[in-house]
Amino acid sequence: MNLKIKFIPYEKMKMDSFSDILRDVKENTIILIDAKLKPEEESEIIEKTMESVSEKFSGIELSSIDFAGEEEMNNFERFKNIIIERIIGKKRGMTIIGPAKIIHKIKKNPKELLLYM
Known about the structure:
By secondary structure, the chain is an alpha+beta fold. It has one domain (about 5-115). It is about 35% helix and about 30% strand. The protein is built from 4 helices and 6 strands.
């Protein structure tokens, strides 16, 4: 079985459809996105995945991590981060999406994601 890892900048992900990402995942590709997905984006990709679950495709594993470290910030730094996120349109962090048949579990710690394959 071939396993591929594909890095997608958040800006490109917004231009592509979630169907394109799902197609890649069905072809045993692990997708790395350079931002934390918004809850509505995660919901949309999960919804599209549920529509295409079959005997051949068991679904996805999806997890995001936020690199902002807000618990260590004062109010000014939090406000600055909110402004930056609004300007650039993405949340600092990373999202991993992969086929459930390959990624058995994603363990999330405050500053790292561990993939169990």
